[in-house]
Amino acid sequence: xxxxxxxxxxxxxxxxxxxxxxxxGKGELIGGLALLSGYINKVRQEExxxxxxIAGDMVQGSLIDSEYKGIxxxxxxxxxxxxxVSLGNHEVDYGLPHLxxxxxxxxxxxxxxNLYIKKYHRRLMRPYHIINKAGFDILxxxxxxxKIMDSINQDKLIGSFVTLSEASEEVGRITDAYKNDDIDLTxxxxxxxxxxxxxxxxxxxxxxxxxxxxGGHSHTIxxxxxxxxxxxxxxxxxxxxQIGRFxxxxxxxxxxxxxxxxxxxxxxNKLAKPDKKLTSYIESYKKVVDQKYNTLVCKFSEKLTHPxxxxxxxxxxxxxxxxxxxxxxxxxxxGAGSIRVKELGPLVTLGDVKACFPYDDSLTRFxxxxxxxxxxxxHIMRPENRDGEGECYQVSAGVQVVYNDAKHQLESLTVKxxxxxxxxxxxxxxxxxxxxxxxxxxNISEQELRASGIAKVVSTSAQGVLEEYxxxxxxxxxxxxxxxxxx
Length: 487
Description:
Layout: E1 3-11, E2 21-22, E3 29-30, H1 33-46, E4 50-55, H2 63-68, H3 71-80, E5 84-86, H4 96-105, E6 110-111, E7 115-117, E8 122-123, E9 128-133, E10 136-144, H5 147-151, E11 158-160, H6 164-178, E12 183-191, H7 194-203, E13 212-214, E14 226-228, E15 231-234, E16 242-251, E17 256-266, H8 276-293, E18 296-299, E19 304-305, H9 314-327, E20 331-335, E21 343-344, E22 347-349, H10 350-356, E23 363-369, H11 370-380, E24 393-395, E25 399-404, E26 409-415, E27 418-419, E28 425-431, H12 432-436, H13 438-441, H14 446-449, E29 455-459, H15 462-471, E30 484-486
Parallel strand pairs: 1-4, 4-5, 5-6, 10-12, 12-13, 13-15, 20-28, 25-30
Antiparallel strand pairs: 1-16, 2-3, 7-8, 7-11, 9-10, 14-15, 16-17, 18-22, 19-21, 20-24, 23-28, 23-29, 25-26, 26-27
């Protein structure tokens, strides 16, 4: 038996989480790229055959990233020197041309197998990459979530095979074409969410030889990896507070993993020393951003929080109410994922506002029927949408929705204290991104939204609305008040 040990470190959904934080109650530093880099450097020195991979979403989520449109992130990632990265949905947030520019900046391969230029049936990114380590050939390929299509759905040149069955077929095409007897290990980097990873693993044929799925998108924290269809599946949460670590033994004769150990390693200053050069590099960006955005906008009467996307939050209520006031609508739906921080205030700087709500999108008011409104809430509140992979929403004041999880049905929907009437008309305001993706996210097409003929863009800049409102209001307070209720 010819075997070799490998250590595979993996991150996902880092979202511009550059800086370490002080852990409350313990006084120790946790997370941040300098500490993460320190740990990766330590492992590279201690172990013989180390690979570090990232399963999508390096960009978006921090003010530094937003200010430089991912360029800062890519330069910092070059410093971390991952061996391979797969594409996530947020890599496309700054537009398709900019994604291709960022890819050219990268000193590491970025793989994706199922994003295509439709007219020419050519893959947009390199579909696979083979790394030779210690005489063993390791094949990597990448799969993205259908959400990536929402970010570029205005670009008709781009298409994708996005269902799980289609994605599995793409994996088969890659492995059938490039996996020969010399490939000792096959790793799939996905960005489709943990539950979808499990479903995908069940569809992969054993002959394709996929040994491992390293995933992202759902921000899942695991105690141990799953094993489905003899494929190991792992994910490492979100941000840089932790990193996944596989220690595996691969058999060259059978091209399989014969031993494995997986850990979710917490990143703190007790584990490794921070990479001082990377700290200085990040600080050079932070200094510029702080000078530009460290201006006090307002003060809340208390800290507002947004701990989970799937539930009503005090910060979500504030954002929804601000937009609803501007739109003069009955119902405002704010994509909960648009709010990128877990807390805000009491002191709020311009930088805090930008980091909280980095997506500068339009706001459009539509007129729909009560029956359509019920259809929307029945769709977005169902349990299957609240699994970490769905698109959830915060709602404006005056709306109360009760959903019965046990019965899988909407129990009640009231607007301004009155039950919604199927035959009456109601005004609904949406961000542009969610309006253009309404068929998938809201179970109602954009054509249906516009069927009444009464649609109006009430703002071309949701971010500007938020900044202007906060600049002119002090001592704001918001509570969780039962707008979204699950039984």
